[in-house]
């Protein structure tokens, strides 16, 4: 019985080497922390920081070829940041609409 031919995939095309001593990305940790802060202490600034650091972390992790981990933390920070920013936007929109309706009722 013949063996199928071996797949010759160059290592620089799509395969990543997993390192035993892979470290968490500092940007991914910062994204998660600022995402949590965006919900608690500093809503707008924390959300924007979570979004920026989350995208930077995802890029850093993708380019590290397995040396860095933390993709899930970066994703969680992005989700927290975008949802927090969305809520801030909706609250601001509701306040503006209430001001317009209230002003219309006065006249």
Write up what this structure looks like.
The protein has one domain (24-106). The protein has three helices and two strands; from the N terminus they run βααβα. By secondary structure, it is mainly α. Helix 2 packs antiparallel against helix 3.
List key phrases describing it:
two-stranded parallel ribbon, 3 helices, mainly alpha, 107 residues
Low-confidence stretches: none
Largest sheet: 2 strands, parallel
Number of continuous helical runs: 3
What is the tally of beta strands? 2
Quickly describe the structure:
The chain has 107 residues and is mostly helical. It has one domain. The protein contains three helices and two strands; from the N terminus they run E-H-H-E-H.
What's the topology here?
Blueprint: E1 23-24, H1 26-40, H2 43-63, E2 68-69, H3 71-106
Parallel strand pairs: 1-2
């Amino acid at each position: 019985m013949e063996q199928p031919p071996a797949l010759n995939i160059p290592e620089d095309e799509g395969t990543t080497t997993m390192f035993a001593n892979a470290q968490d990305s500092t940007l991914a940790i910062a994204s998660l922390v600022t995402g949590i802060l965006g919900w608690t202490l500093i809503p707008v600034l924390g959300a924007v920081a979570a979004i920026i650091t989350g995208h930077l972390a995802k890029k850093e992790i993708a380019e590290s070829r397995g040396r860095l981990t933390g993709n899930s933390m970066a994703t969680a920070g992005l989700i927290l940041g975008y949802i927090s920013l969305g809520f801030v936007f909706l609250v601001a929109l509701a306040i503006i609409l209430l001001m317009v309706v209230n002003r219309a009722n006065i006249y």
